[in-house]
Protein backbone atom coordinates (compact mmCIF):
# COMPACT_ATOMS: atom_id res chain seq x y z
CA UNK A 1 0.00 0.00 0.00
CA UNK A 2 1.26 3.47 -0.87
CA UNK A 3 1.53 5.75 2.17
CA UNK A 4 -1.47 7.86 3.09
CA UNK A 5 -0.74 11.49 3.97
CA UNK A 6 -3.22 13.47 6.05
CA UNK A 7 -3.15 17.22 5.53
CA UNK A 8 -5.27 20.00 7.00
CA UNK A 9 -5.28 22.91 9.40
CA UNK A 10 -4.20 22.61 13.04
CA UNK A 11 -6.88 20.90 15.06
CA UNK A 12 -8.57 19.22 12.10
CA UNK A 13 -7.98 15.80 13.65
CA UNK A 14 -5.00 14.57 11.61
CA UNK A 15 -3.15 12.97 14.52
CA UNK A 16 -6.22 11.23 15.97
CA UNK A 17 -7.45 10.03 12.57
CA UNK A 18 -3.96 8.87 11.53
CA UNK A 19 -3.73 6.56 14.55
CA UNK A 20 -7.17 5.05 14.03
CA UNK A 21 -6.61 4.68 10.27
CA UNK A 22 -3.22 3.02 10.71
CA UNK A 23 -4.66 0.65 13.28
CA UNK A 24 -7.48 -0.36 10.96
CA UNK A 25 -5.12 -0.85 8.00
CA UNK A 26 -2.49 -2.51 10.20
CA UNK A 27 0.31 -0.22 9.04
CA UNK A 28 2.71 2.10 10.86
CA UNK A 29 1.77 5.62 11.80
CA UNK A 30 4.03 8.69 11.65
CA UNK A 31 3.56 12.31 12.61
CA UNK A 32 5.85 14.94 11.08
CA UNK A 33 5.61 17.15 14.20
CA UNK A 34 6.64 14.29 16.48
CA UNK A 35 9.52 13.43 14.18
CA UNK A 36 10.69 17.08 14.19
CA UNK A 37 10.57 17.17 18.01
CA UNK A 38 12.57 13.94 18.16
CA UNK A 39 15.20 15.17 15.74
CA UNK A 40 15.55 18.64 17.25
CA UNK A 41 15.34 17.47 20.87
CA UNK A 42 13.01 20.44 21.52
CA UNK A 43 9.28 21.06 21.60
CA UNK A 44 7.62 22.83 18.66
CA UNK A 45 7.28 25.97 20.81
CA UNK A 46 10.98 25.85 21.67
CA UNK A 47 11.98 25.44 18.03
CA UNK A 48 9.84 28.44 16.98
CA UNK A 49 11.12 30.52 19.88
CA UNK A 50 14.82 29.65 19.79
CA UNK A 51 15.39 28.85 16.10
CA UNK A 52 12.54 30.64 14.36
CA UNK A 53 9.82 29.49 11.99
CA UNK A 54 12.15 29.31 9.00
CA UNK A 55 14.27 26.62 10.65
CA UNK A 56 11.16 24.79 11.71
CA UNK A 57 9.93 24.78 8.10
CA UNK A 58 13.20 23.50 6.78
CA UNK A 59 13.20 20.66 9.32
CA UNK A 60 9.58 19.96 8.43
CA UNK A 61 10.38 19.58 4.72
CA UNK A 62 13.34 17.36 5.49
CA UNK A 63 11.14 15.15 7.69
CA UNK A 64 8.34 14.94 5.11
CA UNK A 65 10.75 13.76 2.43
CA UNK A 66 12.23 11.13 4.75
CA UNK A 67 8.98 9.41 5.78
CA UNK A 68 8.35 5.83 4.63
CA UNK A 69 6.50 5.83 1.31
CA UNK A 70 4.70 2.50 1.70
CA UNK A 71 2.60 0.82 4.40
CA UNK A 72 2.27 3.93 6.49
CA UNK A 73 -0.10 6.69 7.48
CA UNK A 74 1.63 10.06 7.84
CA UNK A 75 -0.03 12.92 9.76
CA UNK A 76 1.50 16.22 8.68
CA UNK A 77 1.75 19.63 10.35
CA UNK A 78 -0.83 22.18 9.21
CA UNK A 79 1.78 24.36 7.52
CA UNK A 80 3.34 21.63 5.40
CA UNK A 81 1.58 22.93 2.28
CA UNK A 82 3.14 26.39 2.69
CA UNK A 83 6.15 25.27 0.69
CA UNK A 84 5.82 24.79 -3.05
CA UNK A 85 8.32 21.96 -2.88
CA UNK A 86 6.20 20.11 -0.30
CA UNK A 87 3.05 20.68 -2.32
CA UNK A 88 4.78 19.29 -5.41
CA UNK A 89 5.98 16.26 -3.45
CA UNK A 90 2.49 15.56 -2.12
CA UNK A 91 0.82 16.13 -5.49
CA UNK A 92 2.93 13.28 -6.80
CA UNK A 93 1.49 10.92 -4.19
CA UNK A 94 -1.59 8.79 -4.66
CA UNK A 95 -3.18 9.05 -1.23
CA UNK A 96 -3.27 12.60 0.06
CA UNK A 97 -6.31 13.31 2.20
CA UNK A 98 -7.42 16.78 3.27
CA UNK A 99 -9.35 16.77 6.54
CA UNK A 100 -11.55 19.80 6.25
CA UNK A 101 -12.98 21.37 9.42
CA UNK A 102 -14.69 24.71 10.08
CA UNK A 103 -12.55 27.42 11.63
CA UNK A 104 -15.03 27.70 14.51
CA UNK A 105 -14.89 23.97 15.21
CA UNK A 106 -11.11 24.09 15.16
CA UNK A 107 -10.96 26.96 17.63
CA UNK A 108 -13.38 25.17 19.95
CA UNK A 109 -11.32 22.01 19.80
CA UNK A 110 -8.06 23.82 20.52
CA UNK A 111 -9.29 26.05 23.34
CA UNK A 112 -6.63 26.23 26.04
CA UNK A 113 -4.04 24.48 23.87
CA UNK A 114 -0.67 26.19 24.24
CA UNK A 115 1.43 23.83 22.14
CA UNK A 116 0.85 25.63 18.84
CA UNK A 117 2.88 28.83 18.44
CA UNK A 118 0.74 30.09 15.54
CA UNK A 119 -2.55 29.68 17.37
CA UNK A 120 -3.04 31.55 20.59
CA UNK A 121 -6.14 33.38 21.68
CA UNK A 122 -4.59 36.80 21.11
CA UNK A 123 -3.76 35.80 17.53
CA UNK A 124 -7.28 34.81 16.51
CA UNK A 125 -7.53 37.16 13.54
CA UNK A 126 -4.16 36.13 12.21
CA UNK A 127 -5.12 32.47 12.64
CA UNK A 128 -8.33 32.95 10.72
CA UNK A 129 -6.46 34.71 7.94
CA UNK A 130 -3.96 31.84 7.84
CA UNK A 131 -6.85 29.37 7.68
CA UNK A 132 -8.41 31.21 4.72
CA UNK A 133 -5.16 31.57 2.84
CA UNK A 134 -4.28 27.91 3.27
CA UNK A 135 -7.64 26.46 2.27
CA UNK A 136 -6.96 26.53 -1.51
CA UNK A 137 -3.50 25.06 -0.95
CA UNK A 138 -4.91 22.03 0.91
CA UNK A 139 -7.52 21.65 -1.82
CA UNK A 140 -5.10 21.77 -4.73
CA UNK A 141 -2.70 19.37 -2.99
CA UNK A 142 -5.11 16.64 -1.86
CA UNK A 143 -6.63 13.90 -4.00
CA UNK A 144 -9.43 13.36 -1.47
CA UNK A 145 -11.19 16.01 0.62
CA UNK A 146 -13.19 14.90 3.64
CA UNK A 147 -15.62 17.21 5.40
CA UNK A 148 -15.15 16.16 9.01
CA UNK A 149 -18.00 18.19 10.50
CA UNK A 150 -20.37 16.13 12.60
CA UNK A 151 -18.43 12.92 11.92
CA UNK A 152 -16.80 10.58 14.42
CA UNK A 153 -13.21 9.41 13.99
CA UNK A 154 -14.41 6.01 12.92
CA UNK A 155 -16.73 7.50 10.28
CA UNK A 156 -13.83 9.54 8.91
CA UNK A 157 -11.57 6.47 8.81
CA UNK A 158 -14.20 4.45 6.93
CA UNK A 159 -14.76 7.28 4.47
CA UNK A 160 -11.03 7.56 3.73
CA UNK A 161 -10.76 3.81 3.08
CA UNK A 162 -13.85 3.81 0.94
CA UNK A 163 -12.68 6.75 -1.18
CA UNK A 164 -9.10 5.60 -1.72
C1 LIG B 1 1.62 24.43 12.31
C2 LIG B 1 0.90 23.30 12.69
C3 LIG B 1 1.33 22.42 13.79
C4 LIG B 1 2.85 22.48 13.94
C5 LIG B 1 3.31 23.90 14.11
C6 LIG B 1 2.93 24.79 12.93
C7 LIG B 1 1.08 25.29 11.24
O1 LIG B 1 0.93 21.08 13.51
O2 LIG B 1 3.47 21.89 12.83
O3 LIG B 1 2.75 24.38 15.29
O4 LIG B 1 1.81 26.11 10.67
O5 LIG B 1 -0.12 25.12 10.91
P1 LIG B 1 -0.60 20.56 13.64
O6 LIG B 1 -1.28 20.87 12.34
O7 LIG B 1 -0.44 19.09 13.85
O8 LIG B 1 -1.20 21.26 14.79
TrEMBL record:
Quaternary structure, per UniProt, is: Monomer.
Residues binding substrate: 33, 57, 78, 134
**Keyword terms:** Amino-acid biosynthesis, Aromatic amino acid biosynthesis, ATP-binding, Cytoplasm, Kinase, Magnesium, Metal-binding, Nucleotide-binding, Transferase
Family the entry assigns? Belongs to the shikimate kinase family.
Return the EC number: 2.7.1.71
What is the protein named?
A: Shikimate kinase
Which positions bind ATP? 11-16, 116
Q: Which GO terms describe its molecular function?
A: shikimate kinase activity
- Role noted for this protein: Catalyzes the specific phosphorylation of the 3-hydroxyl group of shikimic acid using ATP as a cosubstrate.
Per the record's keyword annotation, is Transferase included, yes or no?
yes
Which species is this record about? Answer: Mesobacillus jeotgali
Amino acid sequence: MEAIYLIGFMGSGKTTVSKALAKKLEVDVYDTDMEIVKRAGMTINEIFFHKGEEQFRSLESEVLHSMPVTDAVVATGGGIIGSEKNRGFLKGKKNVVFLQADFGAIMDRLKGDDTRPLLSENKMEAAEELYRSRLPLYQETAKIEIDTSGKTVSMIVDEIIQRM
